[in-house]
Amino acid sequence: MSVTLTNGRLGIRKTNLKSGFEIEPFADFRSWSIASRQQGLSRRDFLRGALGAGAASLALKPKRLFAATADTSRKTIIVTFGGGARDAETFSVEGQRNIPHMMQELAPQGMFFSQVVNRGILGHYVATSSIASGCYETFDNFVAEGPANPTLFEYYRRGLQRPAKDVWVIAPSNGFEAIGNSSHAAYGKKYGAQVILPKRLLTYAAAANNHTLRDYNALLHDSYESPYHSDDAAQDAAAGKIESEEIAKTLKLSLDEFTAHSRTLSSPDELSLFITRQVMREVAPSLLFITLHDIDVAHSGAYSLYLDAIQRADRLCAELWQEVEANPEYKDRTTVMIMPDFGRDADGEGNGFQHHRTGSPMARTTWMLALGKGTRPGTIVSRPIESIDLTPTVASLYGFDTPFSTGRPITELL
Fold first, then answer.
1. What domain range is 76 assigned to?
2. CA triplet 344, 346, 349: central angle to 5 degrees?
3. CA angle, 188 as apex, 185 and 193 as ends, to 5°?
4. What is the mean pLDDT of residues 349-364?
5. pTM of this structure
């Protein structure tokens, strides 16, 4: 992998050891930016038409960058999709049937950012880590290591002097274990988040509830593009088991309840939402970071499974919002931010929906929906923002600094 600066922006050539593809994002930065803006405007215009005459565009106005005082009563939930969905299957006339909850329930209540750009490596773990740190991380996507730069979780805990139980990450695979904190000398594990690995919890909870793991085989498989997870050290394995047991007891996990209420036992995202609800009900942390990953089944080339995963993610986001509204610890105090880590290739570019290898505008330009506290319902923002802007934005809402982040606060949310 090589890192260069092109037109003042980070450029990366990345060779994927699994498939041998290369990405050189900014060979033609000017034309790429124009195409990205056109895609964002198309998305904006479609959503405005779908929302009706009440939808408004928000003009950018100068605002404070940091809250005057720390707002410790606020709660924030961030949802990312590991495996973005194209407009063709979502924000288009043909695609909107796959996201009825997003279109009819969530978007009218929130602010829609139609042009969110990812200028980094298009690998799910490294891209999710970049969102969390507010910097474009450059480590190997297939190695389970923490970000080099401090994460939002570390900034939050150090800046507001909050305990570990106030920050939780629901990770999509065991390989995301290290995302909770960086290797930065001034921050690190002592300020990190509680990271929940649903598949590891499942193994313990199945035994505790007299279930056989055979019932959950599909949930235990990691996705196509997950970091390799090595657990060779017996001491680390034992520590992980003890931690999982304690978390399962704290959250009062019942697989009977999960089985009764989940529509399918083959979806890791269903398991992640179930655990998220339990975290909210039993611990009520102020900062929750959840990554859904079912959409990445697109790598298998099965278009029907890809559509099914989009529809499931749409429903689960609505169910999460319903939990926020029904839970007195979160109602009227919470901002929810939903954003894919990046998109997918267009038909005629690479393998189309199946992958995200070209670095094209379709693969790099996505969207964000923010709803709840501090947002302006029915508002569309079409100016370009970047995925790494999320961390400094949350910091500004709470009133703490992110000195190593290279993103910028999203002023429309402040």
1. 42-413
2. 110
3. 165
4. 77
5. 0.83
Count of structural domains, the chain: 1
Helix (H, G, I), strand (E, B) or coil at 349: coil
Within a domain: 15: no
pLDDT (0 to 100) of residue 31? 54
Beta-bridge partners for 6: 9
Which among 195, 219, 223 is positioned nearest to 205, based on CA atoms?
Answer: 219
- Within a domain: residue 148? yes
Residue pointed to by tokens 């979160």: 330
191: CATH = 3.40.720.10
User: Strand 110-117 vs strand 287-292: parallel, antiparallel, or unpaired?
Assistant: unpaired
Angle between helices 152-160 and 124-133 (to 10 degrees): 20
Which pLDDT score, from 0 to 100, does residue 392 have?
A: 98
Helix and strand element counts for the chain (H, E):
12, 13
The CA-atom distances, in angstroms, between 353 and each of 89, 113, 298, 345 are 9, 22, 7, 6
Of 244, 218, 227, 240, residue with least CA distance to 309 = 218
Rounded distance between C-alpha atoms, residue 34 and residue 347, angstroms: 19
Q: What is the pLDDT of residues 293-340, one digit of tens each?
A: 899 888 888 999 999 999 999 999 999 999 999 999 999 999 999 999
Decide if pLDDT at 39 tops 70: no
Report helix, strand or coil for 45: helix
- For the chain, the maximum distance between any two Cα atoms, rounded to a whole number of angstroms, is 61
